[in-house]
Design goal:
By secondary structure, the protein is mainly α. The protein has a two-stranded antiparallel sheet. α2 packs antiparallel against α4. The termini are far apart. Bound molecules: fe (ii) ion (2 copies). One fe (ii) ion (FE2) binds next to α4 and α7.
Length: 333
């Protein structure tokens, strides 16, 4: 979900790998061994992971913005505290993931530069606006819910640092999902106006949430290789179906209608079948023309600029400490 660009071509020169090394690498993957930072790995595996993990990290950080919009307007102190904790978690997720990407030989500065220049992608979902408080409910319920669907299998992904980061992240995502669903439940048990607000938010978030799983398998460029390397364990369409099957009964429990006239339960397979997804909208948003793409990047750039003095001060402090320790060492000798 936060890794939609997994379906794009990978930049960089083609590397011809040693077939013996490749075979040994694949054998380790097949035996469910974890690949660690100092192990040999094919260049394409490394690049795929850098792109996927960094895109995931960017999504966590950009994902803080639509929710931050509601921090000052949360309806109660309890809601404000929970939302604040959730947004802080997302910042933490970004940090673990940038750190995991750094073990593959890229610097955080480089990754940040790719985000701020618009070269790197982040999840399309965060380019939609949060118009009412019910949107915060929908984000937790649907967006974090979709994140969990995608991220639980990533706890077993073949690259060790990524898999370990995902274990902790998934525990927190589950709190986020419940937080969102509980907001929806309160609204749906509230006044007719509150329930209408919940339905309106579901109408706007449902289809973008389904798009979070990325393009259909028939158009997904890297799925097969990523599955062989066990970076990915399920295809986009499999995960999307799991999400729909889990979420439709939750909507019914809330007394809400999924905005899809073609939605129906298929007795034979036990799956909820959904209507066609507007992939043109998805492509437009991914290409930078969603409702909030400009606003999101502008906010990240501003934050990066305003944080410059902190980064410079931290580097100066580290340098000073290094000099002091060196002087102490020399004096002791
Ligand atoms: Fe997260
Ligand atoms: Fe989350």
């Amino acid at each position: 979900m936060y890794t939609q660009a997994l379906n794009e071509r990978i930049d960089g020169p083609r590397v011809v790998e040693d077939p013996e090394k490749l075979a040994a690498f694949q054998a380790r993957i097949d035996a469910e061994e974890k690949i660690e930072p100092n192990d040999w790995m094919p260049e394409a595996y490394r690049r795929t992971l850098v792109r996927q993990i960094s895109q995931h990290a960017h999504s966590e950080v950009v994902g803080m913005l639509p929710e931050g919009n509601w921090l000052t307007r949360a309806p109660t102190l309890k809601r404000k505290a929970a939302l604040l904790a959730k947004i802080q978690d997302e910042g933490g997720h970004g940090l673990y993931l940038y750190a995991a990407a750094e073990t593959l030989g890229v610097s955080r500065e480089e990754l940040y530069e790719q985000l701020l220049s618009g070269k790197a992608k982040y999840s399309s979902i965060f380019n939609y606006p949060t118009l009412t408080w019910a949107d915060i409910g929908c984000i937790g319920w649907l967006v974090d819910g979709a994140a969990i669907m995608n991220q639980i299998p990533l706890c077993r992904t073949s690259y060790g640092p990524y898999a370990r980061a995902m274990i902790r992240i998934c525990k927190e995502e589950s709190f986020h999902q419940r937080q969102g669903y509980e907001i929806m439940l309160a609204l749906c048990r509230g006044t007719p106006e509150q329930k209408a607000m919940a339905q309106d938010a579901l109408n706007r978030w449902w289809w973008p949430a389904l798009m979070m799983f990325g393009p259909p398998d028939s158009e997904s460029v890297h799925t097969e290789q990523s599955m062989r390397w066990k970076i990915k364990r399920f295809t986009n369409d499999e995960l999307r179906q799991k999400f729909v099957d889990a979420t439709v009964p939750q909507a019914h429990y809330l007394g809400l209608t999924i905005p899809d006239p073609e939605l129906r339960y298929d007795e034979a397979t036990g799956h909820w079948r959904y209507g066609p997804i507007d992939w043109d909208e998805f492509k437009r948003v991914i290409a930078g023309f969603g409702p909030c793409n400009r606003e999101r990047l502008a906010a990240r750039r501003k934050a990066h600029e305003e944080g410059r003095w902190v980064r410079e001060a931290a580097i100066a402090h580290a340098e000073k400490r290094r000099m002091r320790e060196r002087a102490q060492r020399l004096a002791a000798e």
